[in-house]
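Async update (no meeting this week)

Hi team, since we skipped the sync, here's where things stand on the single-chain job. The sequence we agreed to prioritize is pasted below, unchanged from the tracker. I ran it this morning and attached the output directly underneath so nobody has to dig for it. Comments welcome in thread, and please keep replies under the output.
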Amino acid sequence: MRARIVGVATFLPERRMSSLEVEERVRRESAGFAPRPGIVEAMTGIRSRSVAEPDVQASDLAVAASAKLLAEAGVEAAELDMVLFASASQDMAEPATAHMVCAKLGARCPTFDVKNACNSLLNGIQVAEAMIVTGQARRVLVATGETPSRAIRWRVRDFAQFVEAFPGYTLADAGAAVLVERAESGGIFHRSFVADSTRWSVGTLPGGGSAHPRDPDATYFRMDGPALRRAFLALGRGPLDAALAATGLGWDDFAAVCVHQVTMPYLRTFTEGSAIPAERLVVTLPEHGNLASAGLAFGLATALEQGRAGPGDRVALIGLAGGVSLGVLFAEL
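Output:
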C-alpha cells in the first residue's frame, strides 16, 4: 500500500512588503539605528514577501489553503480521516492549533499538531504516509499556517542586534495544504531524515515555553545565520546521495526539485554542492521570501501551475530546518 499526494494548495495574504519597506520600518521604529538601504535584498535576494493582517491567525491561513484544496479535490471536510496541523507557528500554546483548523473547516476527525520548525509540513506528510500505510487512515489533510511576521524584531538597538534579528527579515506569512490518500501504486516512494540536535541553539524563538514563559524580549527570533549555514553544510550532501542511491535515481529523473529556501546565496551553495540541475529547481524566494514550512508546498504548487510537473511525474521535496534537520521525500504524482 502506498500514500499518494493527490493535491496541494497555497494561500498568500494580500498585503505585500518589499525589502525596502522592511528597512524603512526598522529605521522608523528604532532609536538611532538605520540599516543601509538595500542591504536586505543584497544579502538575501528577496525583493518582496506577504504579511498577514494583525487579526489573521496561523489557523486562518491554514484553513484558507485547505478550503481551496478540498474544493479543488471535490472532498468534503467530513470525509477526512485525519487532519494534521504542521507548522512552526501556532495560534496559542494550548490547545493544538489543529483543533482550530478542524473547527473552522467543519472537520470531525482525529487531529494533532506536528512541529519541527521549517520541516514541519514535510514531517507532517511523513506522519500522514505512516498513518495510511499502517491502515489507520485513508485520507489525511496536512495543513500549515505560518505567521513569522509576528516574531520579527523591528525596534533594533544597534548593528549587533540587527544582525541577530536579520534572518527574521527574510520571512513571510503563508498558508498551505497537502492532501494525502491511500493508493495502490505510485505515490511516496522514499523518505529519509537526519538531524544534528547539538546545533539547536543557533536559531531560536524562546518565548512562550517553560524556559521563557513571560519574557517579552524572548518573543523575537534570535539566529546566528552564519552558524546555521555551517550546521547545514556540516550535514553535507550525504543524505541526498543516500536517497538517490537507495532509489537508483538521479536528479534528472525528477520533473521538479523543491528545496526549502532561506536566501539566494545559500540556495546556490546548497544546490551546487548537491549537484541539483538548475533547470529542475523551483525557485520562489525572490518574490515570496522564506515561507517557512509552507515553502515546499508553495514550490510544488508552483511547479504544477507552471506545467513543470504533473500526474505520473516524480518530484523531490528537500527540507532544511532549525534544530537542525534535513529531510528528503520523493514522490510520484
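Quick observations from my side:
The mean pLDDT is 94.
The longest strand covers residues 2-11.
Reply here if anything looks off.
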